[in-house]
Amino acid sequence: MTLTAVVTGASSGIGAATARALAEAGYRVVCAARRTDRIEPLAAEIGGVAVACDITDPAQVDALAAAVGDRLDLLVNNAGGAVGTETLAEADFDAWVTMFETNVLGAGRVTKALLPALRAAEGTVVFVTSTAAEAAYEGGSGYNAAKAGERMLAGALRLELNGEPVRVCEVAPGLVHTEEFSLVRFHGDQAKADAVYAGVPDPLVAEDVAEVITWVATRPPHVNIDRLVVRPRAQAANHKLFRG
Ligand code: 8X3
Fold first, then answer.
1. Among candidates 98, 153, 118, which has minimal Cα distance to 30?
2. Does the C-beta of 13 come closer than 6 Å to ligand 1?
3. Is residue 140, in this structure, part of any structural domain at all?
4. Is residue 182 part of a domain?
């Protein structure tokens, strides 16, 4: 029987790479994102399905659940991201609302909507959080708080489902050089986005994280990877980033 996976934020970066990696591993992948011009060709490429979904819109999340149907083997809560690097003294709370709406409420909303199908299939949920949940850093307060909040969703859900055959996992990536993460964070300023990775020998790329997510998801059913932190070798900690 073909296993089905939903990947949110499948339009780019880690989400798109994960959709490809899961398809390679044999999953039928439902690629969910707002930008249909990106997920439709991706779905066609990997033999999956594209479902337009803004995870901040409850009606669109309900429509995603309806498109998935009664059974779901894997949910990868990947949609989210960072907006801004202001200090708390300079906080832009509109940006915080966006970060909480996607990383926390969106992930929670999608998980709640798909949980009946995951239970029916004895499935797995993977939350893609961040090393921003590991420790605070200057200019990170809103994102640190959002990712720490998402981490708590994973933790609470795992406790709540204890005794049921549903796994709840977390993958927390560090510095990953993707097309859009830093560009969005710096409001489209390419020079500032590029500076994040300047001189760093081999930051992670989306495919590295996709491979980790796929590995987590494809362990035997009794093996639950609670949390996996993955960083590039050059990043020993959030603040300890080697630049050559
Ligand atoms: C991305 C990692 O270092 O920008 O989630 O917080 S970091």
1. 118
2. no
3. yes
4. no
Confirm whether 243 is domain-assigned: no
In the prediction, which pLDDT does 1 show? 85
Query: Is residue 27 among the annotated active site residues?
Result: no
Structure tokens at 26: 């044999």
Summarize pLDDT for 138-176 with one digit per residue, the tens: 999 999 999 999 999 999 999 999 999 999 999 999 999
Q: Is 130 in the pocket of ligand 1 (CB under 6 A)?
A: yes
Atom 7 of ligand 1, nearest CA residue: 132
Number of domains the chain contains? 1
Q: What distance in angstroms lies between residue 128's CA and the mean position of ligand 1's atoms?
A: 12
- pLDDT tens-digit series, residues 77-100: 999 999 999 999 999 999 999 999
* Residues in contact with 133: Cβ distance below 8 Å, sequence separation at least 6, in sequence order: 144, 147, 148, 150, 151, 172
Which residues constitute the domain of residue 114? Answer: 4-174+204-231
Is the distance from CB of 214 to CB of 22 less than 8 angstroms?
yes
Residue 240 in any domain: the answer is no
What CATH number did the domain enclosing 163 receive?
Answer: 3.40.50.720
In the block, tokens 């990868």 appear at: 76
